[in-house]
Amino acid sequence: MVTAIVGANWGDEGKGKITDLLAERSDVVVRFQGGANAGHTILNEHGRFALHILPSGIFYPHVTNIIGNGVALDIARLAQELSDLAEQGIPAPNLIVSQRAQILMPYHSLQDAYEEQRLGGRAFGSTKSGIAPFYSDKYAKMGIQVCDLYHEARLRDRLERAVEVKNVLFQHLYHQPPLDVEQLYGQLLEYRELIRPYVGDAVGFLHQALGQGKRVLLEGQLGAMKDPDLGIFPMTTSSHTLAGFGCVGAPVPPTSIQEVLCVTKAYSSSVGSNTEPFLSELTGPEGEELRRRGGDKGEYGATTGRPRRVGWFDTVATKYGCMVQGATQVALTCLDVLGYLDEIPVCVGYELDGVVTDRFPTTPELLRAKPVFETLPGWKQDVRGMTDYAALPAQAKAYVDFLEERIGVPITLVSTGPGRHEVAQRK
Length: 427
Ligand code: GDP
Prior knowledge:
Elements: E1 2-7, H1 15-22, E2 28-31, E3 40-44, E4 47-51, E5 64-67, E6 72-73, H2 75-87, E7 94-98, E8 102-103, H3 106-119, H4 131-139, H5 152-173, H6 181-195, E9 199-200, H7 202-211, E10 216-223, H8 246-249, E11 257-265, E12 268-270, H9 284-293, E13 309-311, H10 315-325, E14 329-333, E15 343-352, E16 355-357, H11 363-366, E17 370-377, H12 394-407, E18 411-415, E19 423-425
Parallel strand pairs: 1-10, 1-11, 2-5, 2-10, 5-7, 6-8, 7-9, 11-14, 14-18
Antiparallel strand pairs: 3-4, 12-13, 15-16, 15-17, 18-19
Helix pairs in contact: 3-4
Bound molecules: guanosine-5'-diphosphate.
Guanosine-5'-diphosphate (GDP) is lined by residues 7, 11-17, 38-41, 43, 295-296, 302, 333-334, 336-337, 415-418.
């Protein structure tokens, strides 16, 4: 059976922590989309880790970790992450890199940076990891698959075709130097050796594992608001962040996904450009305080170190996020962070042209919408690390009940700290 662990919001909801926790009782963990452009922070008995491309099951020797075909495979970053983990004393993980995954090329990152520079004030706030050019090339059939690395004539041909197009763009649109095919080819041959021990038939492996009744986790990157179809387009990422895409990017059969565990924080946070609509945002000294207290070391991007925008819980966005993810249950993280507040506003509606709605609108409407808040009492108590749900303060439980009622999906897990076992089972 398959459980998808995915984000209800803008990303950084704590999916890595929840995956690390549930992997204890799972056999396979799969990354099915995105690349090394976002990070999952994990605190466990081995230390503190920021994973970017490796699945969060790598801390368990019994788990097979898969980088699925839907991922933007940054081989240099993967090799770096593997060697960093080895340096930190983590045993070499069981890892399969799908032979059908496509390779994020150095020119994808260059194009990403050139394009952001070209856009100037209109830039998307990209992490410049090459994700948008990577997926554009994939769908334009210009990508290079991992399996191509092992067929040299084909590899060279694929590379030459891609460089032909890139060079027109680089020289004439961006006024940058052209790419050198020989140098890129040499780099690909190096990549080939770096990943050789891991390359395999992930499709066959997953189907066989499911046939044997193994427990599989799909680990999403970013969240529903960043999906290019159902998110806040175009302030989105370039791969599908929805559990449904696991059927393509992992891949698992649609009928095998029994649980969709949507992760959401007890408040909101978002990385990316300041031009993105973020209705429940908290700015000024109050926002600064929430940012400082948030997450495990403040709300700063695990990959970029950029300060995240923070705000109050948004039930409109989260209800929609859970709906498009197909959530069967919700994990609410970071409840401990809110323990300093006397009262806690929650965004319960959007006002659009004088009418309050709890329907999540399209981007042009969202840009005009105003948040409507309801205020709940705080609990003024440190609940960090509490594992007995019943023992939480009454106001904290009332807060969770309120959110559950608004989003319409059972909140089964409540996380009370960044550590692996700092979590209370609610249902
Ligand atoms: P992901 O990309 O969804 O895995 O999320 P990130 O790892 O980017 O961001 C989540 C942040 O919240 C990390 O710093 C986690 O260590 C932290 N975190 C996760 N759950 C909790 C929690 O219950 N309490 C606190 N204080 N921090 C948490």
